[in-house]
Specification:
Length: 595
């Protein structure tokens, strides 16, 4: 696949965001590396009005850029008002709630926090210094510098950290006085600031020139030398390299920019432009940056959410998975339906991340949509038995049987119950089943009606009543399968079971987790497993089918039901399934079909 172009949905981002881009003007023609040919017209980014509509529909009006007030929910406003009221409490432990203003990023209340620099208790003064440093309120630099005379080393470190954020180089002489401080952390931080500030103008000036050098090697080597966690003020110049014609420089620029904190939101539009880059690694880095920090304004958060949704169709597997993770970090609850579509992504990591994101957002998928997404994972298993003339009198020889199973790997591996394959009935807690019947032929039927023959070798786990069979597939056949992860539900969680109860193919039943029961299945090696008790309707034909939660996560393998009870079924937890690895070298677990 030609990597010069990403999906059309990604490429069109450029024209929409460039109109609102607030960064520096493009470099002059003399700064362009003449050794790198300009992109052809076919490689240029283009724009579409439908993408602009998608972004604008998710945004809310805000007056001004950068100067707009922080938009807060009622709950946040109540929390801020309450925290401000506690700053005057006579108890220092209550006044310490100034740290809640940090959690809420309440930089609009910097004046109230600034008054706490004169608090009578050192812990409150320390928290106030940290808050003002995070808020970037440079007007308090001199007041914070006074904390360098404190007796408490932790306060001095917090003051130094804040001065670093403020780039308060005019305080260098006061910092020099701490080079021999008795506190090692203070000495270390002081030495870092002195090394940074001495000759600062000359050093930074040289870097600024080199970052704009026409020689791409100079630009690349300069980028490598800069630590933006210390020289964050160079971030705006590094952002200009997001449009560099050399992919390795663009990639390094965004990786370096990840180290900044206070500048990220100021350049959100420039970062978003990288989502249309022709290099998948650069798109990945851009998504990572956008999903790794919180936005102070709702309008920017919603814009980014809308743009990231476009990345769900990116041709690169890692980019799609990272976009899903970012949507979870950004709280994109309004995008739950698009995220749910990724539960059937061609890449298993993206499918796994989709369910993780839905769970993080607490956004369950409606049952009808979930069934449509999960149905292709589930199969029907038909077994034809070999005739056995010497069965006990109480056993009637059936011609065959059927049950459920589901794909768990790209090679077509299907997990089901052991008793579906060899007969007998596994006990509720996974006790060994008796092999009364021998399969002569095992067939897997997919949700679209395709009938697949299976390999002769079957992996069986007697104690856990598990079996793994492998259909014979064409070399280019792609299988959509359920990622096996050690999820463990909580009592009361909603669950669904998909199977073929009494021949009613691909039936869905809903219920709750009634209890989790851990019991030992191998007393000699002291191995135990977890069974999920559920009131979802379980009947013959459900055996071997999957149990899912409403985020699309696989929870367990439906194992049994108590025939004389109602609402009492069991599934073996996928946590136990995840611990069982079937492989050809496990000869004691391999059972060969008799022909």
């Amino acid at each position: 696949m030609d990597r010069r172009l990403c999906s059309p949905a990604c490429l069109v981002i450029f024209a929409i965001l460039v109109s609102s881009c607030t960064g520096s003007p493009p470099a002059e023609e003399s700064q362009v590396d003449e050794r790198v040919p300009p992109p052809s017209e076919s490689e240029a980014r283009v724009g579409e009005s439908e993408i602009e509509a998608a972004i604008n529909a998710s945004a809310i009006e805000s007056s001004g850029v950068g100067g707009a007030p922080v938009e807060r929910s009622l709950e946040e406003r109540i929390r801020i008002t309450s925290a401000l009221g506690r700053l005057d409490d006579p108890l220092w432990s209550v006044r310490l709630d100034v740290r809640e203003l940090i959690d809420l990023d309440a930089r609009d209340e910097a004046d109230a926090v600034g008054r706490m620099l004169a608090d009578t208790h050192w812990t409150v003064r320390n928290e106030a210094a940290e808050a003002l440093g995070q808020f970037g309120t440079i007007e308090y630099a001199n007041d914070i510098a006074n904390l360098l005379d404190e007796d408490i080393g932790r306060v001095r470190v917090s003051a130094l950290n804040a001065l670093n954020v403020f780039h308060a180089r005019h305080q260098i002489e006061r910092v020099r006085g701490l080079e021999n401080d008795p506190d090692g952390n203070v000495r270390l931080m002081a030495s870092v600031l002195i090394a940074k500030w001495e000759g600062y103008d000359e050093r930074v000036g040289a870097w600024l020139r080199q970052l704009k050098d026409v020689n791409s090697d100079v630009r690349f080597e300069t980028l490598q030398a800069i630590n933006l966690s210390i020289y964050g003020e160079l971030g705006s110049t590094v952002v200009e390299l997001f449009d560099d014609p050399v992919p390795s420089i663009r990639r390094l620029a965004v990786m370096k920019f990840r180290l900044t904190r206070e500048l990220r939101e100021d350049f959100v539009d420039q970062i978003a432009l990288l989502l249309a880059d022709s290099e998948p690694e650069i798109r990945y880095q851009a998504v990572f940056v956008l999903g790794s920090f919180s936005f102070r304004t709702e309008v920017k958060r919603k814009r980014v959410n809308a743009v990231l949704v476009l990345l769900l169709n990116d041709p690169d597997d890692d980019v799609r998975a990272e976009a899903l993770r970012a949507l979870g970090n950004l709280g994109a609850t309004e995008q739950a339906s698009q995220i749910a579509d990724s539960l059937v992504d061609t890449n298993v990591d993206a499918r796994r991340q989709a369910s993780e994101t839905l769970a993080k957002l607490r956004s369950p998928v409606d049952t009808a949509s979930l069934f449509e997404v999960l149905e292709p994972f589930v199969v029907r298993i038909e077994v034809e038995y070999e005739y056995r003339p010497n069965l006990p009198d109480f056993i009637q020889q059936p011609a065959g049987s059927s049950g459920a199973g589901f794909f768990v790997r790209g090679d077509g591996s299907v997990v089901t119950n052991r008793h579906v394959i060899v007969g007998g009935a596994g006990l509720t807690t996974g006790g060994m089943a008796v092999d009364w019947l021998w399969p002569k032929r095992v067939t897997v039927i997919t949700s679209d009606g395709e009938r697949l023959s299976t390999l002769d070798e079957i992996w069986l786990h007697p104690e856990l009543d598990l079996a793994v069979i492998r259909p014979v597939l064409e070399s280019d056949r792609k299988i959509s399968y359920a990622p096996v992860q050690p999820y463990l539900p909580a009592v009361g969680d909603d669950v669904i079971a998909i199977g073929h109860p009494r021949g009613q193919d691909w039936s869905l039943t809903e219920g709750n987790v009634s209890q989790l029961r851990e019991e030992m299945y191998d007393p000699f090696d002291r191995k135990s497993a977890v069974w999920i008790q559920t009131d979802a309707a379980i009947n013959p034909g459900n055996s071997g089918g999957p149990l899912f939660d409403l985020y699309g996560r696989l929870l367990g393998v439906v194992t049994s039901y108590l025939g004389n009870s109602q609402g009492l079924g069991f599934a073996l937890s996928v946590r136990t399934l995840n611990d069982w690895r079937w492989a050809e070298e496990d000869e004691h677990l391999v059972w060969r079909v008799r022909r």
